[in-house]
Amino acid sequence: MAAEKLTQDGRARVLADGNEIPLLALGVWQVPDGPECEKAVRWALEAGYRHIDTAQAYGNEASVGRALRDSGIAREDVFITTKFYPGSRDPEAEAERSLERLGVERVDLYIVHWPQGGPTWAWDGMQRAHERGYARSIGVSNFAASEIDDLLKVADVAPVVNQVQFSPFEFRRKLLAACEARGLALEAYSPLGTGRHLRDSQVAEIAERRGRTPAQVLIRWALQRGLIVLPKSTHRERIEQNAQVFDFELTSADMDTLDGLDGTGGTDRALEQTWW
Ligand code: A2P
Fold it and tell me: In what order do the strands lie in the sheet with 228-230?
């Protein structure tokens, strides 16, 4: 990734529409609404995270909003993402409901959660949500390169991110290259393989050599590959640990070893199997 796309402190990236997005986010997939989610978000904000990634389908937007308000941190200092649930019909109306649940006037990023029913039908509503100021940036998630191309043919406002499952074990090189070539930043969800990649012996070996944890190695790999990265945890010490990733570097030999763990064949697809 070109260095000029990063902000001066190296912790945020400038999207194609000019908006800045912090590289590290707390993901709250599968975190139940209520105290557990509120605490996780509060701890993350205390640990210095300035980007929280939620979704209509997660059912926890209200907790994210409450933790944000209770933190006392200025709204403009925290980047909030939510996602349009494509089982609903109207992205504009659903954005209004998200804003109510979150208790904010706009989100920073609103993305189509997955291309159910095809990659283009929801975009008109996403653009209306953008035009009405409900979201500063709009994007997609779980889109393959071909689906991005289909969308770009009809879009007036282009998507600026594609959020996909991404880690050394799911190193979808062709998808990453396609996103970068089309002006979409790639966001890595489940960067720890929902926990299972933490047990890999090669990841553990690199972690031990660097005096870091496997989670930090996987998050650092994503940062060095130019990605926005969204690790999830509900434990305070892990949330803090996962943020300590800007003070060390993996060598190019470490990066090569990690790259070699890919099991996708460097695909330009977003998923091995769809769930819809
Ligand atoms: P928990 O939420 O109980 O802390 P991913 O980000 O790939 O979805 O992975 C999330 C999973 O990894 C969760 O099960 C989370 O557990 C676990 N996890 C997150 N950070 C760490 C860490 N630093 N050490 C160990 N496990 C972690």
Answer: 26-27, 51-53, 79-84, 107-112, 135-141, 161-165, 185-189, 228-230
